[in-house]
Design goal:
By secondary structure, the chain is of the alpha/beta class. 43% of the residues lie in helices and 15% in strands. It has 20 helices and 20 strands. Strands 3, 4, 5, 6, 7, 10, 11, 12, 13 and 14 form a 10-stranded mixed β-sheet that branches. The chain has a 5-stranded antiparallel β-sheet with strand order 16-17-18-19-20, covered by helices on one side. Helix 2 crosses helix 8 and helix 3 packs across helix 6. The radius of gyration is 27 Å and the shape is globular. 45% of the residues are buried.
Length: 653
């Protein structure tokens, strides 16, 4: 009978698996290439590199997968080959491995659909937060169909291996000691080589991000992210002298209202805005909206009319028209707002250990006798939010279904009860229900004569894009546009209800996105997909206006504190955008790429102690490399080196 391999051997199944895996990986790589036919580079050398580097990493993954099989062949005595025990072990683990790999290939496709990346640290997080992720998959896809497809493909190849006598070869052939030891030595050498000397970053060879991502192997990328959730700045990035770095940042943050401490390795300072007027104290309801790209708004050219309420606020608020998120995930937005800090490499500080008792905007509010609260419509254990906010002075209001992790909350936690919920999906209750809870608590806070700062994190604008029916003219669950329009609708309902309350006239509303709906593009930093809207609403202290200055999420609350004319201690990197000395810039990052942008120039730091200086074409969203500017480079390094230094040395107090 014709065989799938060209020789009979105890290693036939190992060889067949290897060929099968490499073929599937090759096909998947072409799927991704054609998926982004217009964005990926199709130059001959680029395609050859994409496929060759991809094959190299696939071979490494195959070696890891097959190592247990070769170890088993090595240690099993010849007399047990073909025995009942041998057959049970081989059949069971070969079927299981096939199933897992087929499932992984399909998972890579769905992950790519949402993030345009191979598996990364987001996929690592998804292993931890299983309830939300599995519920999201169930609500977004036909899970029974997907599982059926995985099983069908698995059974097909399992039976194909049997038909081609692969298992027959495995069970009838003995192996001598020399062959066993040689094969084990080879696989050990390959595994050691990849573990020790082949970082995942080796696949990032192209200026076209799609070619680099397609060159990666998903499984290899997953475990690389698992190992590198926190990256030591001084080891992986270009540095300058610490005192020089802090001096540069102090110069950027200084103005005639700021007095710095004498510590050379610190940005601690006193900010005094009371020279103009007396301090203002108003309640603040801060709303961080999930995935609200600036491109959704009519002002930025969108013609779908999905943000009518937010569009109406542009001329009735302090509207930030040229503001950029620091990252691509919710925890990055939270980090930027609460800590007012550039993104540090690796995971967000929100998810790191030892992130309690930091200097945050809550520290400033509490110094003015405010109570501070965090509202989230899902379970705040997700992404370590409860631990971070609870460890930094916020009382927690969340769904509280029950955490599989220790939230380590140092403050009070309150549940949003079932009788307060009319609609809920995988990620939490609908925005309307969340805002109703905020209003209920604000009523109580007002009755108790308390100034409040309420931090609200929404969830409705998130896959599976479901929301209450008959609220807007786009059916629930049909896509992002409907979720955005419902998000806008819920905000309008919040304001209509709030306006009936006595506390409304003494309450400022601040709205900003956590990040854009999409962050991936062909450039290593896709700048247009960091552009987000922000509003300060209902402030009689300053006239409505559109701020065109290029600025960052980290500048939002220092600007608000200035509007309030507050004198306060600060350990924040953000600056009041109204200050005449404010230098326009934005700080953008992924978990490995760190960027300083000024107007149309962008310096990108990479974790191989490399950097590129680029010119950004806003119309095309393209980056083109330009000659290095040493001064610009050192300033970029200073922003990120000082931020990392303060956190790692426990000085963000």
């Amino acid at each position: 009978m014709k065989k799938i391999v060209n020789f009979d051997s105890r290693y036939s199944l190992v060889i067949a698996f290897c060929l099968w895996f490499l073929t599937f990986s090759f096909v998947l790589r072409f799927v991704f290439l054609f998926w982004h036919f217009e964005e990926a580079s199709w130059q001959f050398l680029d395609i050859i590199k994409t496929l060759f580097i991809g094959f190299f990493f696939d071979f490494g993954v195959a070696s890891f997968i097959l190592f247990p099989s070769i170890l088993y062949i090595t240690i099993l005595p010849n007399k047990l080959i073909g025995s009942f025990l041998d057959k049970c072990i081989v059949y069971f683990f070969s079927f299981l491995t096939l199933f897992i790999l087929v499932f992984t290939f399909l998972a890579e496709i769905t992950f790519w659909e949402e993030f345009k990346n191979r598996f990364n640290f987001i996929a690592v997080d998804y292993l931890i937060y299983t309830y939300e992720v599995l519920s999201n998959i169930k609500e977004s896809y036909n899970i029974y169909l997907l599982v059926s497809i995985v099983i069908a493909i698995t059974v097909f190849f399992f039976l194909l291996f049997k038909k081609k006598c692969i298992y027959e070869n495995v069970f009838k052939n003995k192996v001598n000691l020399k062959t066993r030891l040689t094969s084990l030595s080879i696989i050990l050498f390959i595994v050691f080589l990849f573990l020790k000397f082949i970082p995942n970053s080796m696949a990032e060879w192209s200026s076209n991000r799609y070619n680099s991502e397609i060159s990666k192997a998903g499984i290899y990328s997953f475990f690389a992210a698992f190992r590198n959730n926190q990256i030591k700045y001084e080891r992986f990035y270009t540095t300058v002298d610490n005192e020089k770095a802090f001096a540069m940042i102090k110069k950027n943050l200084s103005d005639d209202k700021t007095t710095f401490s004498s510590d050379k390795l610190s940005i601690h300072r006193t900010i005094n805005d009371t020279a103009i007027n007396n301090e203002v104290k108003k309640n603040v309801i801060f709303i961080m909206v999930e995935s609200l790209s600036a491109s959704f708004m009519e002002k930025n050219g969108n013609t779908e009319k999905i943000t009518p309420f937010l569009d109406s606020l542009v001329t009735k608020s302090v509207f930030f028209d040229n503001l950029y998120a620091t990252g691509t995930r919710t925890v990055r937005g939270m980090e930027a707002i609460t800590l007012s800090i550039p993104p540090t490499p690796g995971q967000s500080i929100v998810k790191r250990p030892e992130n309690h008792n930091l200097f945050t905007i809550a520290t400033v509010f509490k110094s003015k006798n405010y109570i501070t609260n965090f509202f989230y419509g899902g379970d705040g254990y997700f992404d370590n939010m409860n631990s971070f906010f609870g460890g930094n002075g916020f009382d927690i209001y969340d769904r509280g279904r029950g955490s599989i992790l220790n939230d380590d909350i140092k403050t009070k936690r309150y549940n949003i009860d079932d009788n307060e919920v009319t609609f809920e999906n995988a990620w939490g209750i609908c925005d309307e229900n969340l805002y109703d809870k905020v209003i209920t608590i604000a009523d109580k806070q007002y009755k108790d004569n308390k100034l409040f700062f309420n931090f609200v994190m929404t969830t409705s604008n998130h896959r599976p894009y479901t929301y209450p029916e008959n609220k807007i003219d786009i059916p629930s669950g049909t896509g992002r546009s409907g979720a955005v329009k419902y998000t806008d609708y819920a905000l309008k309902q919040l304001f209509e209800k709030a306006k009936t309350k006595e506390w409304y006239k003494n309450t400022i509303f601040v709205i900003i996105a956590d990040h854009c709906a999409s962050s991936a593009g062909k450039n290593e930093i896709d700048i247009a997909n960091y552009h987000i809207p922000a509003f300060i609403i209902n402030s009689s202290e300053i006239e409505s206006q559109i701020i065109g200055k290029q600025c960052s999420q980290i500048d939002l609350f220092p600007t608000l504190f200035s509007i309030f004319n507050w004198k306060y201690e600060s350990n924040l990197f953000g600056k009041n955008v109204f200050d005449p000395s404010f230098e326009e810039r934005a700080l953008l990052g992924t978990y490995r790429k760190l960027t300083l942008m000024k107007n149309d120039k962008a310096m990108i730091l990479s974790d191989q102690k490399k950097q590129t200086f680029n010119k950004w074409d806003k119309k095309t969203n393209n980056l083109s490399t330009i000659p290095m500017d040493k001064t610009f480079l050192e300033e970029t390094i200073a922003w990120y080196q000082t931020a990392d230094y303060l956190f790692t040395h426990k000085l963000l107090k």
